[in-house]
Each structure stands twice: as C-alpha cells, then as structure tokens.
Amino acid sequence: MRRNDARSAKPAPDPRDSERGLTLVEMMVTVVLLATVVLGSASMLTQVFNQNKRARHRSLATYLASERIDQITSLAYNAAADYLRYQLPGEAPLAGPPSTFTADYGSIPDYPEFRRVVTLNYGVPEAGMLQITSEVFWQDMHQGEKSHEMITYIHPGLEQRQ
Predict the structure, then answer these.
(1) pTM of the complete model
(2) Number of neighbouring beta carbons within 10 Å of residue 143
(3) Total structural domains within the chain
(4) Is 8 domain-assigned?
(5) What pLDDT shows up at residue 162?
(6) What strands, in cross-sheet order, belong to the sheet with 144-154?
C-alpha cells in the first residue's frame, strides 16, 4: 500500500522559474564594469598616440640636427671670416662671435613644424677648432616649445687632404 505523504509530494514547477536572465541591478553592474574598461582603454590609447607623436618629433629633430651638421662637416673648413659659406637658403645669418644661422618655422623644406639654430663657435674648445651646434625646436601642445641639440667639433688640420 502506498502512503500519500504531503512531505514527499513535489509541487508543480512554476513557469517563471524556467525563464532565466539578468536582473536590473546585474545589468547596471555589468554596464558600469564595461564602461570602466572601455574608458580606461580609451585613455591608454590617447596616451600611446601622444607618446608616439612626441617620439616622432624627437626623431625628426635628431635627423634635422644631424643632417645640418653633416652638411657643414662635408664642406671644406671655412675660417670665421668666411662663415657665410656654410649658410643654406632660408637661413638668416648673424655674425658673432658666435656666428649663427637661424631657420624659422616654415623655412626648413618639408619640415614646416620645426625651426633650427646652427651656431659656429670658432676657437672652441681650443684655438683652431670649430664647435658646431645644431639645435632644432618644435611645438608640443602639452609641453610648449621643445628642443633637441647636437654638437660636434672639427679641426682644419685633421681634414683629409686631396
């Protein structure tokens, strides 16, 4: 004989229990977490783009400074009285000492966002030598005007004679 015990009887399943999903609170927590991740990633990407731009400007400034020094050192040594032989088109000379050439923003071909100052110091660090300083400037929208400087020395007695 079978006993009908109320404790052993299982109630009929509620149709609402079979519907699964997220509550409003769970959805809001999920949206806040996703927004935090997305905003953090966007901030990081902005920083990466800014750093890449800064690195590009510094690399171009290094190139422009080095190129100008190479142009000067590839020429025969010119005494202080003949310093204008080192001048390039677009550069404004200023007799010294020290003698300088200034190329303002927009006057360096293909690089309008840079300006350059080349300084020729004759007799530095000792008599007969020429110190060449090439300093390149550019504008950084967050840090103002930035610069990169390169220095080299030449001596007329050390040039190869042909």
Answers:
(1) 0.72
(2) 8
(3) 1
(4) no
(5) 44
(6) 92-94, 99-103, 114-122, 130-140, 144-154
